[in-house]
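Can't paste images in this forum, so I'm doing it all in text. The chain is below; anyone willing to post the predicted C-alpha cells underneath?
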Amino acid sequence: MSVVHQLSPGWLLDHLSFINNINYQLHQHHEPCCGKNEPTSSVHFDSLQMDSLTSFGTSATFNAFDSATQPDNDDRGNCEISIQNYVFRSELFNVTKPYIISAVHNECQQRNEKEYPVGGVKEENCLSIIGKKRKRCVVFNQGELDAMEYHTKIRGLILDGSSELIQEGFKSGFLHPLSEKWDKCSEPVTLPLDTCNLSELCAMAKHLPSLNETELQALQLMEENISVTEQDLFSRVVENNSSFTKMITLMGQKYLVPPKSSFLLSDISCMHPLLNYRKTYDVIVIDPPWQNKSVKRSNRYSYLSPLQIKQIPIPKLAAPNCLVITWVTNRQKHLRFVKEELYPSWSVDIVAEWHWVKITNSGEFVFPLDSPHKKPYEGLILGRVREKTIPLRNAGIKVLPIPDHKLIVSVPCTLHSHKPPLAEVLKDYVKPDGECLELFARNLQPGWTSWGNEVLKFQHLDYFVALESKS
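Text version of the structure:
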C-alpha cells in the first residue's frame, strides 16, 4: 500500500513502499537440467548498437519463461528453480534535509512578510557575496506576479493540510524528527550512469523501415523463444501478462518488467502502435516535458511545445468518461494552457485541481513554502472526457465525485521527475478493472500500460537491490 494516512485534506503516501510491494520476483532455472546459466525470464536485444543503424535489421531472440504456465511434462520439470527478489534502493528516498538551507529560508520568510506593492516593484534586502547588506529594486514580470497571486490563494490550503497529514505521520512513526546522528550519516547518493540513452535510441528508431503496424499484435513475454527483428521493439506494445517479473536486456543494460504490465518504447512521432493496440482507457495520466528555463540551460531532456502537447491523441485513447490527469509545473503559463486550451481541445471538462506537496523524511517542506523561486508543491489538473455516444463500461457502477484541492504529500524520489503513484488515491473515482495508461512514463506499474521514450528508465536494474535468492 502506498497510502500511509488518508485524512480530509488528502493523502500521505509512501512511494518506496508502493514500489517494493510490486512482486519484483524472478524465477531462474539453472544447470544441469536447464542447460543454461542465465535466467530464462529475460529478453535479449544485445544486437542493438547506438552507433550503427544497420544493426537494427538483425534479429533478436525473445526468451521468457513463466513457470506458472509451464506444462507439467516439460523436461525442465526437475530443474532447480531459484527465486530472486529485488527491492528499490531505499537511499533514493533518503531526503533528510530541505534542499535550501535554513538561513536562506529565513531570509525568504522575511522578504515575503512584506506586502507586494501595486505595480510589481518592491525594495528587497539581499546578502551580497562579502556578507554586507545592500538594497536593490526588483521588478517582477507578469508571470511572477501571477505566480505570487496563485501562491497567495493556495498557501493556507498547502500549509494547513500538509501540517495535519505530517503530524499524523509523526504519530504513526512513518516520519521521524531529524536527529544529529541521522544528519551526519546522510551522504550524497551515487546514481547509476545512464549508459543506455533510451530517448536517443527512440530517435534512431525513426529511421527504421516502416512496418505494417495494423497487422502487428502486442508482443507477449512468454515461455517460447520468439525470433523477431529489432523493429518489433519500437512498433509493438510489449506485455508481461504473467504473475512474475521478467528481465529485458537492452544494449547490455538490464531492466525489470513488473507482472501484469505493458509498455511501448517510442517518442511522440511514433505513437501509432499504441493506437493500434485497440484499447481505450478509463484513466490517462500525463506528465508532459514542459518547457522551462532550467530545462533549456541543462539540456537534461527534450521538451515539447504547447502545440505538440495538444497533438497527443487523447480523444482516440480515452474511453467514455475517462479521467484525465495532467501534471503541471508551477508556471501559470502552463496552468492556463491546460485549463483554457489543452483540455477544451480534447473535449475534457475540468473537475478538480490537486497539489503534490514534497517533504523530507523529517516532515519539512523540501523548499521553503514562500520561496520566490522554487515551491515545494506541484499541480495536477483532473478532468473528465465529455460523454460520448458509446456506452460506458460498467455503466451500472457509480464512482464518487472527485473533490477539489486535495493534497498528495510524500517524500520525493531523488531521481528527477519520478512522480508518486496515483493508483491508490484514484481508486474511489475510477470503476473497478478500469484500463489505465500513463503517458511520458519513466517507470512501469502492474495493471497499467506505459508509454514514453524513457519508459524503462527507472526500471534499470541498477536502481534495485537483489535480496538473497531462494531455491
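Residues 123 and 137 are 5 Å apart (CA to CA). The longest strand covers residues 318-328.
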